[in-house]
Specification:
Blueprint lengths: L14 H6 L2 E3 L8 H8 L5 E4 L7 H17 L7 E4 L1 E3 L2 E2 L13 H6 L3 H17 L4 E2 L24 H17 L3 E7 L16 E2 L3 H6 L2 H10 L4 E4 L3 E4 L2 E3 L6 H11 L5 E4 L5 H6 L2 H11 L4 E3 L3 H16 L5 H18 L2 H4 L5 H22 L1 E5 L6 H4 L6 E6 L8 H8 L10 H4 L14 H11 L3 E6 L6 H9 L2 E6 L6 H19 L5 E6 L14 E4 L5 H11 L11 H9 L9 E2 L2 H18 L23 E8 L6 E10 L2 E9 L8 H14 L6 E4 L10 E2 L6 H7 L8 E8 L11 H7 L3 E5 L6 H10 L2 H12 L4 E7 L5 E8 L23 E9 L6 H18 L4 E8 L3 H5 L4 E11 L9
Parallel strand pairs: 1-2, 1-13, 2-3, 3-6, 6-7, 7-9, 8-10, 9-12, 15-16, 15-17, 17-18, 18-19, 23-24, 30-31
Antiparallel strand pairs: 4-5, 10-11, 14-19, 20-21, 21-22, 22-23, 24-32, 25-32, 26-31, 26-32, 27-28, 28-29, 29-30
Helix pairs in contact: 5-6, 5-15, 6-8, 11-12, 15-22, 19-22, 27-30
């Protein structure tokens, strides 16, 4: 029989009590219903989610929470209820009370203010307010990285598309919540920042990025937040994951996602909370009973069922059956209970839970928080462009001129004065934040004319002039719009997520064209576009000359917008993340003419440029002496290549060269050279800008890579960064936080080298065997191995080697039952492969010391004794090199984890590089 740990109450031997503490539930209504009372009293549910459907005011919320806690206390709960709330600010709040609860900018709006300290203060103020009414768990911070920012429904709920910036602001917010006494919950793991939507309302959106890609971007903020030790819980998303190493229908039901990735790899020890299992796709595919069991099996500690009583009872029955069927052990339940109770002890007590300070505290702190709200909104408003100096309006139009405001039809925010007023008139049922996801109501755009009515009134009052205001819809520009446009001298168009609501983009472009035509005829027709949600609506559309971003359309945001338009203050907000960085970095003081590389015209100049670089380079880069122009031209039908030059057309001298390649969705910058005598005059920047623009425009581009194995001139940025290259590339928009370290190694004298004692015997005892193949006829297993474990350019490297049957071969390492464990390319001195991998060429003056090559060792990560397999492959390569009369061996493209076992064999590191992979969105303004 399972025994309890000493720190668990004997009460938890009762299965009903234990199961109830693993559930977090909600309901519809502003009062305690018999159903929610029954869940707490009879089923011992220990955590409650409150939404906008439950909350009318601060005072009502405090009474409601106090009643819930009293019910739990009287029912014998040893610990208070966890009371959870979504209060992200911006458009996603559950509690609104204009007298006591302040509005603050969205997460992206806070980042636009460029102050992590401000984000901390906003989070602490938010947490202090909701804590005053009895909330003890805030579902935040949002740690998603908007990898595909323009088209994701998460929008301004996310901080941005730069994982480091998301980490910075996410951790600042998390610390603010903690310092106000709340438990924190990061979301939405592993990421809602780059989802593919399949169309049907029952389809589950999926993540298609590989784990490597996720690790480079999406997982970074989660990893960093976990490392602080201040993240109490993690909200596990309901999305699917489809990539070569993982096929998951629902992340929150996957042991791979929770136990393997979140706990084992990222080291998270807190509470894992599932996405709401009432989502239609999950109910129809699996059923709530089985889904609840699967969530617990996967590692969830709290399973969320947010509203339907019959479904909640089904989940409880499912957990009991799971225990009866021995799918869930008591040890598994006790593990979750300990995590949940540890979190409860950190954020609540019965004294605190039964006596929320409520209005008495809120009335004291409200003035200070209101001042903070005003400052936060003023700091967040961003004027991206004002090419014709239209702002402020008093400077560009007379008071008697008519101003036209055109606004889309949007759904009122759940927690807002408008929703409150409409609810009181029984005209609108407030949606919960979970409705947007669980019940597939993703779009913010729905019918409703009143959202921007107060904006129009405020703007008219502020400028003391006439204002025309009407809405626009998917029906496009109608006669009423044409008439009003003809009357007005200035038109303001409001957009809200125009990239996902394309009628807004079409309407705005139509009006912009009309204004251009009317201006051409001599009429005054100024146009200002205001994005009140995603800043990506027209950030890159230079045809819109005046563009303002507010990052949400709460009353406070619209008030700040009016003050900007009327010149009450000068806005300082910026675009989020990499969009801001790349715009700033790629804006050059000097632009050089960049041309396509022409072999007949430029090969000699490129050779001269390479020699100049070799003379000016560190000793580790002396292989440039033997690098020739043809090294960059693969002429491979599977790889698109485009190379660029900056040249002196009079002398034919090359001042700079950039090599780019495109293969299977990956754009690669394989080399970037600038004449040492011509540096610091923006030649490299001009080349990079042209190269990145060309790659970003490739259909199907998924990622950008800096460094390449084939050709293997530069495997990445040289690790010896004496020239400051890392900072240069970082200024160019590259995120250099997570490199893959690659190296070229050598045995400098094969005649003096011998295998380490016992190595061959260890290989034999492990049952590892080797064979050497030539030509593509026997290479199917090799190519399959490469597809599974390497980038596509490595595949082309192996294909090239297999075609060179006289000088190249591939060694295969096999385990039991002929399973393929690893491969490596072997080439004899003078191989054609050396033309593309310069370290395989003897240095000048050492032509009588031929070099044998061992290239691209690749061992399956799942291979038993992987280090021994790698050493065996290297050993076979060295034997072949000796047989080919090589003076020395060069082992090229050694991945970081393989470095140590090869050093133990006597290899020396010659050159080290850092390869980087980024999202093409880093340079989306170039596309």
């Amino acid at each position: 029989m399972t025994t309890l740990d000493a720190d668990l109450d004997p009460l938890w031997q009762d299965l009903d009590w234990a199961i109830g503490q693993m559930l977090i539930m909600g309901w519809d209504g502003t009062e305690v219903t018999p159903q929610i009372r029954n869940l707490i009293e009879q089923h011992h549910v220990g955590s409650i989610l409150l939404t906008a459907k439950n909350l009318k005011s601060a005072q009502q919320t405090a009474r409601l929470v106090q009643e819930l806690q009293t019910i739990a206390h009287q029912a014998g709960h040893p610990h208070p209820l966890l009371i959870a709330l979504d209060q992200e600010n911006g458009g996603v709040n559950s509690l609104y009370d204009e007298d006591y609860i302040c509005q603050f900018p969205s997460s992206m709006g806070q980042a636009a203010a460029s102050s992590a300290e401000l984000a901390y203060k906003v989070a602490k103020a938010t947490a202090t307010e909701v804590s005053a009414v009895g909330v003890n768990l805030i579902l935040g911070p949002v740690l998603d990285v908007l990898t595909n920012a323009r088209y994701q429904p998460l929008g301004v709920r996310a901080i941005g598309d730069d994982p480091q910036e998301v980490s910075q602001y996410g951790i600042a917010s998390m610390n603010g919540y903690k310092d106000a006494g709340l438990a924190t919950c990061g979301k939405h793991f592993p990421s809602y920042g780059n989802l593919d939507f399949l169309g049907s309302s029952l389809d589950i959106p999926i993540i298609t990025q590989t784990l490597e890609e996720l690790s480079l971007s999406a997982l970074v903020p989660f990893r960093n937040a976990i490392a602080t030790g201040n993240l109490d819980a993690m909200f596990i998303g309901g999305c699917g994951i489809t990539n070569p190493s993982m096929s998951v229908n629902h992340a929150c039901l996957s042991e791979q996602v929770i136990d393997d990735l979140l706990r084992n790899e990222l080291g998270f020890q807190g509470v894992a909370i599932s996405e709401c299992l009432e989502m239609e796709g999950l109910r129809n595919e699996i059923g709530v009973r089985t889904g609840t069991v699967m969530a617990v099996e996967a590692g969830c500690d709290l399973v969320l069922l947010c509203r339907a009583y019959d479904v909640q009872l089904e989940a409880i029955a499912g957990l009991k059956l799971g225990v009866e069927n021995e799918l869930i052990t008591k040890e598994r339940i006790y593990t979750s209970l300990k995590r949940v109770f540890r979190m409860k002890k950190s954020c609540t007590s019965w004294q605190k839970a039964l006596n929320p300070p409520g209005i008495s505290l809120l009335s004291k702190i409200h003035p200070g928080h209101l001042a903070l709200s005003l400052k936060a909104y003023d700091d967040s408003i961003a004027v991206i462009r004002d090419n014709d100096k239209l702002l402020p309006l008093p400077n560009s139009m007379h008071q008697e001129e008519e101003l036209l405001l055109l606004t889309p039809l949007v759904k009122p925010l759940p927690a807002s004065s408008m929703t409150k007023a409409l609810l009181e008139k029984n005209k609108l049922e407030a949606p919960t934040n979970h409705d947007k996801w669980v019940h597939r109501d993703r779009g913010a755009i729905m019918s409703g004319e009143g959202v921007f009515r107060e904006l129009g009134r405020s703007l008219a009052r502020a400028r003391h002039g006439k204002l025309l205001h009407t809405s626009y819809t998917a029906n496009g520009v109608r006669p009423v719009h044409e008439n009003l446009i003809n009357r007005a001298s200035c038109i303001i168009i409001v957009t809200a997520d125009a990239n996902r609501n394309l009628y807004q983009a079409g309407f705005t472009k139509h009006v912009s064209m009309m204004c251009s035509m009317l201006r051409a005829s001599g009429q005054k027709k100024s146009l200002i576009v205001v994005a009140v949600s995603s800043p990506y609506d027209f950030a890159m559309d230079k045809s819109v000359g005046a563009y303002i971003c507010t990052f949400d359309f709460t009353e406070m945001a619209m008030s700040a917008l009016v003050r900007v338009l009327c010149g009450k203050f000068k806005p300082q907000g910026t675009l989020p993340g990499t969009l801001r960085k790349s715009r700033k970095a790629l804006k050059s003081r000097q632009h050089w003419l960049v041309e396509a590389y022409n072999r007949n015209r430029d090969a000699r100049g490129l050779n001269d440029l390479l020699q100049a670089l070799a003379r000016a380079s560190a000793p580790a880069l002396q292989f440039l002496q033997t690098t020739r122009a043809h090294a960059f031209e693969l002429l491979n039908p599977n790889i698109e290549e485009a190379h660029f030059v900056v040249r002196n057309s009079s002398t034919q001298a090359l001042y700079g060269f950039c090599a780019t390649y495109f293969i299977q969705g990956t754009g690669i910058m394989g080399a970037l050279f600038v004449d040492p005598a011509k540096r610091n005059v923006s030649i490299g920047r001009s080349l990079q800008r042209r190269a990145l623009r060309g790659l970003a425009q490739k259909p199907g581009i998924k990622k950008m890579q800096l460094g390449m194995s084939f050709p293997g001139v530069f495997l990445g940025i040289p690790a010896d960064d004496s020239a400051g290259l890392k900072q240069w590339f970082a200024n160019g928009g590259w995120d250099l936080q997570f490199p893959r370290r690659l190296a070229n190694m050598t045995i400098p004298s094969l005649s003096n080298w011998s295998a380490p004692e016992g190595l061959l015997q260890n290989i034999q005892r492990a049952g590892i065997s080797f064979d050497l193949i030539h030509g593509p006829d026997n290479a199917d297993s090799v190519l399959g191995h490469i597809i599974a474990h390497a980038n596509p350019e490595v595949m082309e490297l192996y294909r090239f080697a297999l075609q060179e049957t006289k000088s190249c071969g591939v060694v295969r390492a096999k385990g039991h039952a002929e399973s393929l464990l690893g491969t490596v390319i072997i080439c004899s001195p003078g191989s054609p492969l050396a033309g593309f991998i310069p370290p395989l060429h003897p240095s000048l003056g050492q032509e009588d010391e031929p070099i044998g090559g061992i290239v691209a060792p690749l061992v399956a990560s799942s291979a038993p004794q992987a280090s021994l397999v790698l050493q065996g492959l290297a050993l076979m390569g060295l034997r072949q090199n000796k047989a080919h009369k090589s003076f020395r061996s060069v082992l090229s493209w050694v991945q970081d984890e393989a470095h140590e076992p090869l050093l133990a064999m006597g290899f020396e590191a010659v050159q080290a590089f850092e390869e980087y992979t980024n999202s093409p969105d880093n340079w989306q303004d170039l596309a």
